[in-house]
Write a structure and sequence with these properties.
about 80 residues, mainly alpha, 3 helices, elongated
């Protein structure tokens, strides 16, 4: 029984990773949020400013990955 459960678990983890196509507004929000955090939040509170900038930078990186790896429109299965 134990071997079967391991085989089932390995079959679940063997699925191929696909990037989710994100909207362009997600990237715009990341850019605006980063600049908003850098110019308005960071001077008032360094800790919150850095935290918000890291979150918006991660959003921007996710949108770049989505653009690079998302399927071309019309070729989805």
């Amino acid at each position: 029984m134990r071997k079967k459960s391991k085989q089932k678990q390995s079959s679940r983890t063997s699925k191929r990773w696909h990037a989710a196509p994100l909207k362009g507004s997600f990237m715009v929000l990341a850019i605006i949020g980063f600049f908003f955090s850098a110019y308005l939040v960071y001077p008032e509170s360094v800790n919150y400013g850095i935290a918000f900038m890291l979150v918006f930078a991660a959003m921007f990186i996710a949108s770049l990955i989505s653009m690079a790896h998302a399927p071309i429109r019309g070729q989805e299965k």
